[in-house]
Amino acid sequence: MAVSSTQVQFDSLFGLFSYLAVAVGIVVFSFMIYLIIRYREKPSSRAPEDTPVLGKPPQARGHVRTVLLTLTLSTIIIVPLIIGSFGAVDNILTLPPQTCPATYPEACSIQVIAQRYLWNLTYTRGNITHHEINILRVPIHENIRLSVTSSDVFHDFGIIGYDIKTDAIPGRTNTIWFYPDSPGNFTIQCFELCGAGHAFMKGTLMVMSQAGYFSWYNSTVVH
Ligand SMILES: [Cu+2]
Known about the structure:
The protein has 223 residues and is of the alpha+beta class. The protein folds into 2 domains: 5-41 and 61-93; 109-222, Sandwich (Immunoglobulin-like), CATH 2.60.40.420. Helices cover 33% and strands 28% of the residues. The protein contains 3 helices and 10 strands. A 5-stranded mixed β-sheet has the order 3-2-1-5-8, with no helix packed on it. Helix 1 (5-38) runs antiparallel to helix 2 (64-93). It starts with a helix and ends in a 5-residue tail after the last helix. The model has no long low-confidence stretch (mean pLDDT 89). Bound molecules: copper (II) ion. Copper (II) ion binds next to loops.
Protein backbone atom coordinates (compact mmCIF):
# COMPACT_ATOMS: atom_id res chain seq x y z
CA MET A 1 0.00 0.00 0.00
CA ALA A 2 1.22 3.43 -0.84
CA VAL A 3 2.45 5.34 2.19
CA SER A 4 3.71 8.48 0.46
CA SER A 5 4.20 10.12 -2.93
CA THR A 6 7.96 9.55 -2.75
CA GLN A 7 7.63 5.88 -1.88
CA VAL A 8 5.39 5.34 -4.93
CA GLN A 9 7.83 7.22 -7.15
CA PHE A 10 10.99 5.45 -6.04
CA ASP A 11 9.37 2.02 -5.81
CA SER A 12 8.22 2.27 -9.41
CA LEU A 13 11.70 3.41 -10.44
CA PHE A 14 13.20 0.44 -8.59
CA GLY A 15 10.67 -1.80 -10.36
CA LEU A 16 11.67 -0.40 -13.77
CA PHE A 17 15.36 -1.10 -13.08
CA SER A 18 14.61 -4.58 -11.74
CA TYR A 19 12.35 -5.67 -14.63
CA LEU A 20 14.82 -4.44 -17.24
CA ALA A 21 17.71 -6.12 -15.41
CA VAL A 22 15.81 -9.42 -15.30
CA ALA A 23 14.87 -9.12 -18.99
CA VAL A 24 18.49 -8.42 -20.00
CA GLY A 25 19.69 -11.24 -17.73
CA ILE A 26 17.31 -13.74 -19.36
CA VAL A 27 18.44 -12.76 -22.86
CA VAL A 28 22.17 -12.80 -21.99
CA PHE A 29 22.11 -16.11 -20.11
CA SER A 30 19.92 -17.83 -22.72
CA PHE A 31 22.26 -16.70 -25.48
CA MET A 32 25.28 -17.81 -23.45
CA ILE A 33 23.80 -21.27 -22.86
CA TYR A 34 22.93 -21.54 -26.56
CA LEU A 35 26.53 -20.64 -27.55
CA ILE A 36 28.03 -23.05 -25.02
CA ILE A 37 25.99 -25.90 -26.48
CA ARG A 38 26.32 -24.87 -30.12
CA TYR A 39 30.09 -24.39 -30.04
CA ARG A 40 31.03 -27.05 -27.50
CA GLU A 41 34.24 -28.99 -28.16
CA LYS A 42 33.78 -31.90 -30.56
CA PRO A 43 36.32 -34.29 -32.13
CA SER A 44 35.90 -32.38 -35.39
CA SER A 45 36.47 -28.96 -33.75
CA ARG A 46 39.25 -26.77 -35.04
CA ALA A 47 40.49 -23.31 -34.12
CA PRO A 48 38.81 -20.41 -35.97
CA GLU A 49 40.75 -18.87 -38.81
CA ASP A 50 41.26 -15.58 -36.97
CA THR A 51 42.70 -17.14 -33.79
CA PRO A 52 45.48 -14.83 -32.49
CA VAL A 53 48.94 -16.27 -33.02
CA LEU A 54 51.83 -15.45 -30.70
CA GLY A 55 54.29 -13.08 -32.39
CA LYS A 56 51.88 -11.97 -35.12
CA PRO A 57 49.68 -8.83 -35.07
CA PRO A 58 46.01 -9.74 -34.42
CA GLN A 59 43.65 -9.69 -37.35
CA ALA A 60 40.66 -7.38 -37.24
CA ARG A 61 37.63 -9.07 -35.63
CA GLY A 62 33.98 -8.20 -35.25
CA HIS A 63 31.45 -6.66 -37.57
CA VAL A 64 29.98 -3.18 -37.84
CA ARG A 65 26.50 -4.69 -37.83
CA THR A 66 27.06 -6.36 -34.47
CA VAL A 67 28.41 -3.15 -32.97
CA LEU A 68 25.42 -1.14 -34.24
CA LEU A 69 22.98 -3.75 -32.96
CA THR A 70 24.62 -3.74 -29.51
CA LEU A 71 24.60 0.06 -29.35
CA THR A 72 20.95 0.24 -30.42
CA LEU A 73 19.82 -2.33 -27.86
CA SER A 74 21.81 -0.63 -25.08
CA THR A 75 20.28 2.73 -25.98
CA ILE A 76 16.75 1.29 -25.96
CA ILE A 77 17.38 -0.11 -22.48
CA ILE A 78 19.20 2.89 -21.00
CA VAL A 79 16.95 5.70 -22.24
CA PRO A 80 13.91 4.75 -20.09
CA LEU A 81 16.22 4.41 -17.08
CA ILE A 82 17.68 7.88 -17.65
CA ILE A 83 14.23 9.42 -18.17
CA GLY A 84 12.85 7.63 -15.09
CA SER A 85 15.78 8.62 -12.86
CA PHE A 86 15.85 12.28 -13.89
CA GLY A 87 12.05 12.42 -13.63
CA ALA A 88 12.21 11.18 -10.02
CA VAL A 89 15.00 13.61 -9.12
CA ASP A 90 13.15 16.47 -10.78
CA ASN A 91 9.98 15.56 -8.91
CA ILE A 92 11.67 15.50 -5.52
CA LEU A 93 13.54 18.77 -6.14
CA THR A 94 10.54 20.68 -7.52
CA LEU A 95 8.53 21.88 -4.57
CA PRO A 96 4.75 21.88 -4.92
CA PRO A 97 3.30 25.39 -5.25
CA GLN A 98 1.01 25.03 -2.28
CA THR A 99 1.60 23.32 1.03
CA CYS A 100 -1.28 23.18 3.52
CA PRO A 101 -4.64 24.97 3.47
CA ALA A 102 -4.61 28.77 3.29
CA THR A 103 -5.85 28.99 6.89
CA TYR A 104 -2.60 27.37 8.08
CA PRO A 105 0.00 28.65 5.63
CA GLU A 106 3.00 27.65 7.75
CA ALA A 107 1.70 24.41 9.26
CA CYS A 108 3.21 22.11 6.63
CA SER A 109 6.64 23.73 6.28
CA ILE A 110 8.81 22.34 9.02
CA GLN A 111 12.46 23.02 9.74
CA VAL A 112 14.63 20.04 10.59
CA ILE A 113 17.85 20.78 12.45
CA ALA A 114 20.14 17.82 12.99
CA GLN A 115 22.50 17.80 15.91
CA ARG A 116 24.46 15.10 17.66
CA TYR A 117 22.40 12.90 18.21
CA LEU A 118 18.86 14.12 17.78
CA TRP A 119 16.44 15.79 15.41
CA ASN A 120 15.14 19.21 16.35
CA LEU A 121 11.87 19.98 14.54
CA THR A 122 10.74 23.59 14.41
CA TYR A 123 7.15 24.62 13.68
CA THR A 124 6.20 28.23 13.05
CA ARG A 125 2.77 29.73 13.73
CA GLY A 126 2.77 33.52 13.33
CA ASN A 127 5.37 34.72 15.80
CA ILE A 128 5.33 31.45 17.73
CA THR A 129 8.19 29.03 17.21
CA HIS A 130 7.57 25.57 18.57
CA HIS A 131 10.24 22.87 18.95
CA GLU A 132 9.83 19.15 19.08
CA ILE A 133 12.62 16.65 19.59
CA ASN A 134 12.68 13.47 17.46
CA ILE A 135 8.93 13.49 16.76
CA LEU A 136 7.93 14.90 13.40
CA ARG A 137 4.18 15.37 13.29
CA VAL A 138 2.56 15.94 9.89
CA PRO A 139 -1.01 15.86 8.60
CA ILE A 140 -2.12 13.19 6.14
CA HIS A 141 -3.01 14.18 2.56
CA GLU A 142 -1.10 17.47 2.49
CA ASN A 143 2.11 18.43 0.75
CA ILE A 144 4.76 18.60 3.46
CA ARG A 145 7.92 20.63 3.00
CA LEU A 146 11.01 20.02 5.10
CA SER A 147 13.97 22.42 5.28
CA VAL A 148 16.87 20.36 6.52
CA THR A 149 20.09 21.67 8.04
CA SER A 150 22.55 20.85 10.81
CA SER A 151 23.90 22.74 13.78
CA ASP A 152 27.15 20.80 14.16
CA VAL A 153 28.52 18.13 11.80
CA PHE A 154 27.26 16.47 8.61
CA HIS A 155 24.18 14.32 9.10
CA ASP A 156 21.71 12.83 6.66
CA PHE A 157 17.98 12.93 7.27
CA GLY A 158 16.08 9.92 5.95
CA ILE A 159 12.61 8.47 6.39
CA ILE A 160 12.55 4.68 6.15
CA GLY A 161 9.50 3.54 4.20
CA TYR A 162 9.26 6.85 2.35
CA ASP A 163 12.43 6.18 0.33
CA ILE A 164 13.77 9.71 0.79
CA LYS A 165 16.91 11.17 2.29
CA THR A 166 18.69 14.47 2.19
CA ASP A 167 21.97 15.72 3.64
CA ALA A 168 21.87 17.87 6.77
CA ILE A 169 24.84 20.20 6.40
CA PRO A 170 25.81 23.13 8.65
CA GLY A 171 25.28 26.48 6.90
CA ARG A 172 23.18 25.03 4.12
CA THR A 173 19.48 24.19 3.81
CA ASN A 174 18.26 21.30 1.69
CA THR A 175 14.56 21.17 0.98
CA ILE A 176 12.52 18.05 0.29
CA TRP A 177 8.80 17.41 0.16
CA PHE A 178 6.38 14.52 0.30
CA TYR A 179 2.66 13.76 0.41
CA PRO A 180 1.69 11.19 3.09
CA ASP A 181 -0.96 8.73 1.91
CA SER A 182 -1.51 6.64 5.01
CA PRO A 183 -1.53 7.37 8.74
CA GLY A 184 0.90 5.80 11.16
CA ASN A 185 4.45 6.04 12.45
CA PHE A 186 7.59 5.79 10.34
CA THR A 187 11.22 5.70 11.39
CA ILE A 188 13.49 8.68 10.84
CA GLN A 189 17.15 7.72 10.83
CA CYS A 190 20.48 9.48 10.37
CA PHE A 191 22.26 8.07 7.30
CA GLU A 192 25.65 9.79 7.67
CA LEU A 193 28.15 8.54 10.23
CA CYS A 194 28.30 11.49 12.61
CA GLY A 195 29.89 10.12 15.79
CA ALA A 196 29.58 7.54 18.52
CA GLY A 197 25.81 7.99 18.91
CA HIS A 198 25.02 7.88 15.19
CA ALA A 199 23.21 4.53 15.32
CA PHE A 200 20.86 5.89 17.96
CA MET A 201 20.04 9.09 16.07
CA LYS A 202 16.49 8.10 15.31
CA GLY A 203 13.15 9.84 15.31
CA THR A 204 9.55 9.13 14.46
CA LEU A 205 7.48 10.54 11.64
CA MET A 206 3.93 10.63 12.94
CA VAL A 207 1.34 10.97 10.17
CA MET A 208 -1.80 12.24 11.88
CA SER A 209 -5.36 12.86 10.76
CA GLN A 210 -5.88 16.41 9.49
CA ALA A 211 -8.19 17.29 12.39
CA GLY A 212 -5.77 15.84 14.92
CA TYR A 213 -2.77 17.57 13.43
CA PHE A 214 -4.30 21.02 13.03
CA SER A 215 -5.74 21.01 16.54
CA TRP A 216 -2.30 20.01 17.88
CA TYR A 217 -0.67 22.70 15.69
CA ASN A 218 -3.04 25.34 17.02
CA SER A 219 -2.18 24.39 20.59
CA THR A 220 1.59 24.67 20.09
CA VAL A 221 3.31 27.15 22.37
CA VAL A 222 6.74 28.71 22.57
CA HIS A 223 9.24 26.60 24.44
CU1 LIG B 1 24.49 10.26 12.08
